[in-house]
Amino acid sequence: MKSAFQTQIEALKSEIAGLDSQAEAILETANAREDKATTEDEQGVFDTIMGQQIPALEQRIANLEAQESAQARRAAPVQFQNKAGTELVKTAEADNRKGMLFAVQAHALYVQDGSRAEASRYLRGRGYDLAAWTLEQPRGSVEAALDNLQTAATVAPGDTTTTGWAAELVNVKQDADDFRELLRPQTIIGRIPGQRRLTFEANGSMKVKGQTAGVSGAWIGEGDAIPLEALAFDDITLTPKKRATIVAVNNELMRRGTPSALELIRDDMVEGIARGLDATFQGNAAASSTAPAGIFNGVESTGTVGGGYAALDNDLKGLITGFAISNVGGANRAWVMPEQSKIAIQFMRDANGNVIYPSVAESNTLLGYPIVSSSAVTAATIGLIEGSSLIVADELMPTISISEDATLSMRTDPASNLVAENSATPPVSLSTPVRSMFQTDSVAIRIVTAMDWGMRHGVAVDRLTATSWS
Questions:
Q1: What is the dihedral of CA 182, 183, 187, 190, to 10 degrees?
Q2: Which residues touch 422 (CB under 8 Å, ≥6 apart)?
């Protein structure tokens, strides 16, 4: 519903448009004459329109907009009747928990029926100025502002204490970093040691130099010429690939604004994002225009047959030897395997009943390299990655939206088939199974971000499949 201010402003803008048309008609009439000149009366009307009437209307609009902004700042936050009993509790405990900014935003959007403007007012009235500020920014504007903050700009310099400029940006980046730091340990990609992290911020695609061949140098005698060797490089292009996750949360939880409830919402969001990232990252699919390549794309081979310790030993030796032959550094290597494979190695014993690899249980390492295990990793596989060659770029902040009325297709591949599989002419019905948010008294939280990754050295990753010992 439009406010009284908006109605008056629209009426004044319509009046300005009419005056513009009137002035344009005067000029067109004059232009049709041979001398192209306006008459004295026409010029008088034109001057009045452009010099008095339109400026006066524009000033009235500016006054109304200023009055509307002042009233919005003074107004008490709106509470919708259908959200009776909902209240956001701001405490030091909540502030000290990492990544709460996005959970607070989701709660506020729920309370205010998805309206970002009303959610912002609701948050400001409860002291969550940072969460409110980020809701008020168009998508991408925070990234653009941060990019300007880090480069020479033709605007007044910002500082970290000036409200409305760099202070918010610094705090937003801190909370966004907190959220990402909370997410990374929950994902496979986040646990690879030594990786290099970049942020897209306001950039589109970014290019990173990858090395395809190195140099070794040579021993030379006194006065001998030094052999010339060439480093071979290629470009790795990282492009923001949109990753969207929908998490369904029951309304009983969303109605509560306590720190513990917000923490559960945040954890649901983290789990939802992590599950999708893991499935893609550990895969072997080629890159597409919408998704990054699986990190093991094009590098897989079959494990040793026969089972038992002998097969495992041969597989481990083969992966490590392959890295050695390719001269891949070993400071940040990590094993990537499914949970069941890790368990199989942990409990493997020799003929005397001794545990063969005690370090798996003691320090989560195997032959000196850390183990990154997950139920998302393809069964009966084991991979080896040199983390220093892994480049990961992501967006500064995810965008949060909510819906209580959506009907979700609870498939893992809805993008490929949102309509029923036997439908000849879509849309006929959603792919089953489906879940109505309204019918189940739930709310769908949609989290959209962007991410991409690549390897600077193609030989710094390898994986064996169909392992016989796991």
A1: -70
A2: none
Lowest mean pLDDT among 10-14, 168-172, 284-288, 450-454: 168-172
Give the helix/strand (H/E) hosting 276: helix 259-281
Report the chain's C-alpha Rg in angstroms: 30
- Specify the amino acid at residue 60: R
Residue 86 Ramachandran class (φ > 0 left, ψ -120 to 50 alpha, else beta) = beta
Beta strand 300-302 with 461-465 is parallel
Which pLDDT does position 238 carry in this prediction? 86
User: In this structure, how many other beta carbons lie within 10 angstroms of the beta carbon of residue 279?
Assistant: 17
Residue of 342, 343, 331 lying closest to 385 (CA atoms):
331
CA-closest candidate to residue 281, choices 299, 267, 295? 295
Q: How far is CA 389 from CA 14, 27, 220, 330, 371, in A?
A: 60, 67, 31, 11, 17
CB atoms within 10 A of CB 199: 19
Of 156, 122, 470, which Cα lies nearest the Cα of 312? 470
For residue 34, give the H/E element and its range: none
Helix (H, G, I), strand (E, B) or coil at 417: coil
**pLDDT value, residue 469:** 93
Question: Using CA atoms, how far apart are residues 38 and 353, in angstroms rounded to an integer?
Answer: 107
For residues 188 and 417, give the distance between their C-alpha atoms in angstroms, rounded to a whole number. Answer: 28
pTM for the whole thing?
0.62
How far is C-alpha 326 from the geometric centre of its chain's CA atoms? 34
Pairwise CA distance, residues 31 & 468, whole Å: 88
Q: Which two tokens stand for residue 434?
A: 């489906």
The two tokens of residue 346 are: 């942990």
HSE-up (13 A, CA, CB side) for residue 272: 21
146 near 97, Cβ under 8 Å?
Answer: no
